[in-house]
Amino acid sequence: MSPFRPTQARVRKSLFDVLYGQVTDKLVIDIFAGVGSIGIEALRRGAKKVFFIEKDKKLASIIKNILKTCAAEEHGDVWAMDAFRVLPILKKKRFLFDIFFADPPYDYKHTGRFLDCFFASGILAKEAKGVIEHSRHLSLPDIYPSFKKWKEKRFGETVLTFYKGDQN
To answer: Which residues contact 129 (CB under 8 A, 6 or more apart)?
Structure first.
C-alpha cells in the first residue's frame, strides 16, 4: 500500500469551509504536501504565497508542474526536503506563516515529535491558524506551545484537528 494519500475532496472542502476567508493574502505552509492539493486550493482562495514541503522528489516535481500549468509559479515555493530539516532553515530565513497545513502519512512514526518541533519552531505567526490531518487512531493534544485546539472534524478514518495561536 502506498503512503501517498491525497486529501479527499469532501475533506478539503470542509477544511476550507472552516477557514473561510482566512487564507486571503496570507503566507501559507503546506507540510507533507503530497501533490499539493491543499496548498493549490489555498492559492485558488487568494493566499499570497504557499510554501510546499514534500520530501518525495517526484511529488515535489508534480507540484512544480501544477504551479507552472496554473501560471502560479511566483506564488508557490516547492521545497523537496524532509519536514524536520526544513524547520530550522525557515526559521533562519525568518519566515512567519499565517496559515499552516500538515498531513503526515498515517503510518509516520514521528508525527508526535514532528508536531512538537513544528509548534515550537518559531515559524508560525502568533495569530496563525491551521490544521493537522491525521488518522482517527492518533489523538492530538489540546495544547501545544502557544497554540490550542479549537475544532475537530471527523470523516471516517480521517480527522482534521484545527489549531490557532493563543492570541486568537
So the answer is: 19, 22, 98, 99, 100, 162, 163, 164, 165, 168
pTM of the model: 0.91
Q: Which pairs from 20-23 meet CB under 8 Å and 24+ separation? A: 22/99, 22/129, 23/47, 23/99
More confident residue, 156 or 100: 100
Overall CATH class of domain 9-165 = alpha beta
Q: Is 55 exposed, middle or buried (0-12, 13-18, 19+ CB in 10 A)?
A: middle
Delimit the domains of the chain by residue range: 9-165
The values of phi and psi at residue 51, to 5°, are: -100, 120
